[in-house]
Amino acid sequence: MSNFVSVDELNELRASETPVRVIDVRWRLDRPDGHADYLEGHIPGAVYVPLDTELATHGEPSEGRHPLPSTQTLQDAARRWGVNQGEVIVAYDDSKGLSASRAWWLLRQGGVDVRVLDGGIRAWTAAGLPVATDDVQVEPGDVVLDPFFGSGTTGAVAKRLGRNFVGIEREQAYIDAAAERIASVTPMAVEDLGSISGKRAEPRVAFVSLIDAGVMKPGTMLFDAKKRWAAKVRADGTLAVGDTAGSIHRVGAVVQGLDACNGWTFWHYERNGGLTQIDELRRIARLGMERAGA
Q: Are 87 and 21 in contact (CB under 8 A)?
């Protein structure tokens, strides 16, 4: 079974008795909300899927821009799209399959038969096929996502990193494929693993601890690297920019209009006529903790 369907194949699927659900996953980094584009023209019957809220979750800055949603969150979203047990899902976008592929990967892990429309909405319109401009609302579906072991991706990565794992799978074909895949994996050398895990093993340092230690004083002004934004350090370890206040990460994200930001590398303090990342102060604090046996 191919992971892609052509425009002609999708058109035939929609005309057949095969239950199929089409989802529109338009998203771009510079325009994350694709709903307006969806309303300008989408495949008839396609349900719009907001990537930021239904194919991702909001977490800590260290988790990246778009952490993966839980199985329950994804299942609730898929049911909102009207997906029923046993249906085929076809996902498309307008960005060369980037966001549609995320939907494909997530749903595939849950045991759903899902494909990506080759060429997306542009291929559909180029073929002269009809589009709709309504905001499709459907009856909730009953799909159950089944996060089983599949082809063994988790096990292969775990073995590569020298970690233990437990895999549960009900289909013999997947069991055989996973066993073969995992058997072919060579664990990384211990010294290489050490360099990977070293960063995570470092002691955590809260920004407020720099104030408590006298390294950073309340009232100090912090800046981004180009001095486009300035924030004042408050006594409780938060930053303030105008009416906005919060952690170094939250305020850094807000001023840039982003979902997340690593405040340690975004904010700088003035030193010797130049700017230095506050991450340098965190490094110094960690050295002090190590020497103190923390």
A: yes
For residue 196, what pLDDT is reported?
A: 45
Phi (first) and psi of residue 277, to 5 degrees: -60, 140
Q: With 80 as the cut, is the pLDDT of residue 140 above it?
A: yes
| Strands 113-117 and 88-92, bridge-based pairing | parallel
Q: What pLDDT sits at residue 113?
A: 86
The span from the CA of 224 to the CA of 172, in Å, is 54
Strand partners, 223: 230, 268
Give the residue from 216, 228, 232, 212 showing the smallest Cα distance to 279.
216
